[in-house]
């Protein structure tokens, strides 16, 4: 996979028209010949598939029989590139994961690019290259899209909006309102990796251990979990606001209480150190390749073993339970034996993380 620095524009199909424009200009978003050249010489070769190449105003798709899930999201991460990923991978992984949290296998994505005048063409091409590779790795097709250009200073290089369609894999799709008293709370791995990686790069912080984003498409893990149990009641990807925000939302939707154990939370030492330096709590830090699952108690251990057998969940852990007390509230049993409420925060600790 090419990095921003390594990208060479001559490696793109039919690159000649782009060589005369090393940076994005307003004409690239005007719908004329420059727009056509950008689409034909950069986006289409990167995302190439039969559905996309029809180049119609919309794409007609043939879906397998059954229910579908549909999701959309926007990505404004700063910086555009960071250890372990870029805005390109996030745009694919984030929408794939939103679909899989409803028990769906993602199939098709759309991609809309908002580009800032002056963005280097090699930077855009590196983003597109990474996005295309992420889609191939995830087994999804980017089948339609759009490009707009805004004046210099009106954006931050590149914003991406994706929408996705997937086929629901289960007769009993998980939902935030389905948590039941007695259920067990699991996470698929270490918390806060993505958020602290982006923040440390943004603030030029360095640690003894290199921090890397956990960005990944989780539907293969979800499919294995659903095959192992028909009682996976809730799935969430704890992105903005982290684990605590996701569990608060579940507690409120299901009208239950949730209690987690601080000593059970998997957090890398480097992430814990970064949070301590910045005065932040790992449970509120964004993740892009982790999920939280709420499972019936009789199936929890089986689901945990299935998660740990998958590379996407090798560090999975049981971290808590659903309780009848303090309905609509998340509490944590601290390492000192005390109990504290983990409320919804008013705003984001780390803006522009995804």
Automatic annotation (TrEMBL):
<dbReference type="InterPro" id="IPR011854">
    <property type="entry name" value="HypE"/>
</dbReference>
<protein>
    <submittedName>
        <fullName>Hydrogenase maturation protein, carbamoyl dehydratase HypE</fullName>
    </submittedName>
</protein>
<dbReference type="InterPro" id="IPR036921">
    <property type="entry name" value="PurM-like_N_sf"/>
</dbReference>
<dbReference type="InterPro" id="IPR036676">
    <property type="entry name" value="PurM-like_C_sf"/>
</dbReference>
<dbReference type="Pfam" id="PF00586">
    <property type="entry name" value="AIRS"/>
</dbReference>
<dbReference type="GO" id="GO:0051604">
    <property type="term" value="P:protein maturation"/>
</dbReference>
<dbReference type="InterPro" id="IPR010918">
    <property type="entry name" value="PurM-like_C_dom"/>
</dbReference>
<dbReference type="InterPro" id="IPR016188">
    <property type="entry name" value="PurM-like_N"/>
</dbReference>
<feature type="domain" description="PurM-like C-terminal">
    <location>
        <begin position="180"/>
        <end position="330"/>
    </location>
</feature>
<feature type="domain" description="PurM-like N-terminal">
    <location>
        <begin position="57"/>
        <end position="168"/>
    </location>
</feature>
<comment type="similarity">
    <text>Belongs to the HypE family.</text>
</comment>
<dbReference type="Pfam" id="PF02769">
    <property type="entry name" value="AIRS_C"/>
</dbReference>
């Amino acid at each position: 996979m090419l990095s921003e620095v390594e990208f060479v524009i001559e490696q793109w199909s039919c690159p000649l028209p782009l060589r005369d424009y090393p940076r994005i200009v307003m004409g690239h978003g005007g719908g004329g010949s420059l727009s056509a050249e950008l689409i034909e010489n950069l986006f289409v070769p990167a995302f190439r598939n039969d559905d996309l190449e029809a180049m119609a105003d919309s794409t007609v798709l043939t879906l397998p029989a059954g229910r579908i899930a549909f999701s959309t999201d926007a990505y404004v991460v700063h910086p555009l590139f960071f250890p372990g990923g870029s805005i390109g991978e996030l745009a694919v992984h984030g929408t794939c994961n939103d679909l899989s949290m409803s028990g769906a296998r993602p199939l098709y994505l759309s991609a809309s690019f908002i580009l800032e005048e002056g963005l280097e063409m090699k930077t855009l091409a590196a983003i597109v290259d990474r996005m295309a590779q992420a889609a191939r790795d995830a087994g999804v097709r980017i089948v339609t899209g759009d490009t707009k250009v805004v004046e210099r200073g009106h954006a931050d290089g590149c914003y991406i909006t994706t929408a996705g369609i997937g086929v629901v894999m289960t007769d009993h799709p998980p939902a935030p309102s389905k948590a039941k008293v007695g259920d067990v709370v699991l996470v698929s791995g270490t918390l806060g990796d993505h958020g602290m990686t982006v923040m440390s790069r943004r603030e030029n912080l360095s640690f003894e251990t290199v921090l890397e984003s956990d960005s990944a498409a989780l539907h293969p893990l979800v499919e294995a979990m659903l095959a192992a149990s028909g009682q996976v009641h809730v799935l969430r990807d704890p992105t903005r606001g982290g684990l605590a925000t996701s569990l608060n939302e579940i507690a409120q939707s299901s009208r239950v209480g949730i209690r987690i154990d601080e000593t059970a939370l998997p957090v890398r030492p480097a992430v814990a150190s970064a949070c301590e330096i910045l005065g932040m709590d790992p449970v509120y830090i964004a993740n892009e390749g982790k999920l939280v699952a709420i499972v019936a108690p009789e199936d929890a251990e089986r689901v945990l073993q299935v998660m740990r057998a998958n590379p996407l969940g090798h560090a999975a852990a049981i971290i808590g339970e659903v309780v009848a007390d303090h309905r609509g509230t998340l509490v944590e049993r601290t390492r000192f034996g005390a109990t504290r409420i983990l409320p919804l925060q008013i705003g984001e600790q780390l803006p522009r993380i995804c």
